[in-house]
Design a protein that fits this description.
This protein is mainly alpha-helical and about 300 residues long. It has helices at about 1-10, 15-25, 30-60, 60-70, 70-105, 110-120, 120-125, 125-135, 145-150, 160-185, 185-195, 200-230, 230-240, 250-255, 260-295.
Length: about 300
């Protein structure tokens, strides 16, 4: 009788279990529709242009691609764009953190005005920023003339001018990334550290800074990415001298004007690959720091 009863019991098979999971209603309604829309949207706006760029560059062939990328002019432009973008992002990481710290931790007259001015590079057209910076730091400008006369320092039409322009456009990325983390940081952790005898320096480096570091790395990466692709604010103050102050976006425009579409695609593809590798490294570092801090 027990054997007969056990024979009537239907155990779920693997296929039926998978079917029941797929038919189970999702907690978020419309997941399939929104996921399809998201993937289609990203595919059309991001993957399709990148794919067309890579296909165009692939028309040169393997040797033709490297011959177009490894010319002295292109390598010098790589050095200018990526090197100065790293310098500007590092400067923004330091001073952007200080600006965010002051805006969060202190109260002073004009605080809202300063907070609004941080977003000025977002709202200001890049060409206008480039014209303003070049007029300010030109040899006869308000700042450029005293620097040239007193210290013999030339800013406009030099790599230093490019670094200043990239620092200007990248500062808001660091400030707006670090600022919310500082606002949400619970003061009880700092108070507990002080009650245990920690100094202000020890409290900052062992309590505050580890919590802010992942956001700071994110701001650094965003500032770096913006600097690599920046065009409008740089061309006016750079001087655009090949091998010295010529940036990669300008070199791509020059190749397009010369109807060298494949060469421009090759430079753009190499620029895309280098940027992807560097940002991937930064994201891995950020993930490692977050997991370490979570422990």
């Amino acid at each position: 009788m027990v054997a007969a009863a056990s024979a009537d019991v239907a155990f779920p098979t693997k296929g039926s279990a998978v079917t029941s999971i797929l038919k189970k209603p999702s907690v978020l309604p419309g997941f399939g529709l929104t996921l399809g829309f998201t993937l289609s949207y990203l595919g059309i706006l991001v993957l399709l242009p990148f794919g067309a760029l890579i296909v165009k560059a692939g028309g040169l062939g393997w040797f033709g691609f490297w011959n177009a990328v490894l010319t002295p002019r292109v390598l010098a432009a790589f050095q200018v764009s990526f090197g100065l973008s790293l310098v500007a992002a590092a400067i923004n990481a330091v001073f952007g953190f200080i600006v965010a710290w002051v805006l969060v931790r202190y109260q002073f007259p004009g605080k809202r005005l300063v907070d609004a001015l941080v977003d000025l590079p977002f709202a200001l057209p890049t060409a206008v920023a480039g014209i303003a910076l070049s007029a300010l730091y030109a040899p006869n400008g308000w700042v450029g003339k005293p620097l040239n006369e007193l210290f013999g320092l030339k800013v406009a039409f030099t790599p230093l001018g490019i670094a200043i322009a990239l620092t200007f456009v990248g500062l808001p990325f660091v400030v707006r990334t670090v600022q919310p983390i500082l606002q949400e940081l619970p003061p009880e952790e700092e108070e507990a550290a002080v009650s245990l005898g920690a100094t202000r320096g020890q409290t900052f480096w062992q309590v505050v800074f580890p919590a802010v570091l992942p956001a700071l790395v994110t701001g650094f990466a965003l500032s770096f990415a913006r600097g690599v692709g920046e065009y409008g604010s740089v061309i006016f103050i750079a001087g655009n001298m090949p091998g010295l102050t010529e940036i990669l976006p300008l070199l791509i425009v020059i190749k397009l004007e010369q109807y060298d579409y494949a060469g421009a695609a090759a430079v753009g593809t190499s620029m895309l690959l280098v940027s992807f590798v560097m940002l991937l490294i930064l994201n891995i570092l950020q993930h490692w720091m977050r997991s370490r801090h979570a422990r």
